Amino acid sequence: MSHSVSRPRRSVLYVPATNEKALAKLSSLACDAVILDLEDAVLPHEKVAARERLGQFLAQRPASKREYVVRINALSSEWGADDLAAASGWNADGVLLPKVATPRDILEAGDVLDDAAAPDELKLWAMVETPRALINIGAIAELGRDPASRLACLVAGTNDIVKETGVLMTPDRRYLMPWLMQMVLAARAGGLDMLDGVSNDFRDLDAFARDCAEASAMGFDGKTVIYPAQIDGANSAFSPSAEALAEARAIADAFALPDNASRGVISLGGKMVERLHLVQAEKVLARAAMIAEMTGDEK
User: What is the domain partition of the chain in residue ranges?
Assistant: First the structure.
């Protein structure tokens, strides 16, 4: 399965379900998606109240084209099952499963949603943040080939991976690179989106821009962010550049010429261009069009 063009997920903002001020600001932010967090960002004694408040928020969710995804607590925790049952009836676009270890974790969550008659549009996202998830990443991502699994997106939980493995987190993330690349490879095999982990130093926007550029070069579809000031940098890094758009248009226009209609290979600008490059160009143009539609920009 090739990686089809999905809705933009360039910037995905974590917002604690207990943060009323942050929830109120969402309508003014340019992030492509929001992860409404019931897990790490919520203290144990606030879990139940946070769930109730989030249900109220989603019942009156602002009108926008962005996705609203709920990160529930682990299903092995005392709150996870109730979180998932509640989310199945909420006006959300997705449920993010933390601490995923095997494909069964996703299948069991999907069964709960099916039994609750949750709409097919309610998708599952999965955190890749444990050693077991990394070991099983291929089998987990394969579920993306079956729409019945509901799995649509994987999210790198780099902070938890560092904590669980003891690997050193350096500014260039050199020791994480093999695992990050394995995530992208598995996501592509399953036709899923793959989101990079957060950058903790939210004040250093230059370092954040470098992280985003690197993640884009590795093939990630977007980045999870923890602070509104990071949104613009992520949106820029994971949007097709002006140069990429110009090249894609040139390739599409060249193959559209009557003389090239039946050719598998053409010459363009001194380079050999194949039909596979046309497919890539069409994906770039389609992604740009979806971003423009989502943001209301005219390009």
Answer: 11-237, 242-295
End-to-end CA distance of the chain: 30
What are the pLDDT digits (tens) for 202-218?
889 999 999 999 999 99
Rounded to a whole number of angstroms, the CA Rg of the chain reads: 20
- Cα dist. 217→128, 159, 177, 184, 238 in Å? 20, 21, 12, 11, 9
Q: What are phi and psi of 201, to 5 degrees?
A: -85, 85
Helix (H) or strand (E) holding 285: helix 275-295
In this structure, are residues 281 and 5 in contact, taking their beta carbons and an 8 Å threshold?
Answer: no
Question: What is the reported pTM?
Answer: 0.91
**Cα separation of 117 and 270, whole Å?**
56
Nearest to 6 by CA among 70, 73, 94: 94
**Token output for 151:** 């799995």
Question: Which residues pair with residue 14 across a beta bridge?
Answer: 35
Question: Distance (Å, rounded) from C-alpha 143 to C-alpha 292?
Answer: 30
Average pLDDT in the 228-256 region?
91
Q: Are 125 and 154 in contact (CB under 8 A)?
A: yes
Instruction: Please give the structure tokens belonging to residue 193.
Output: 């989106």
Torsion of CA 189, 192, 196, 198, to 10 degrees: -150
Domain 11-237 is in which class?
alpha beta
Angle at 91 between CA 62 and CA 77, to 5 degrees: 120
Taking a C-beta distance cutoff of 8 angstroms, is the pair 222, 197 a contact?
Answer: no
User: 3-class DSSP state for residue 66?
Assistant: coil
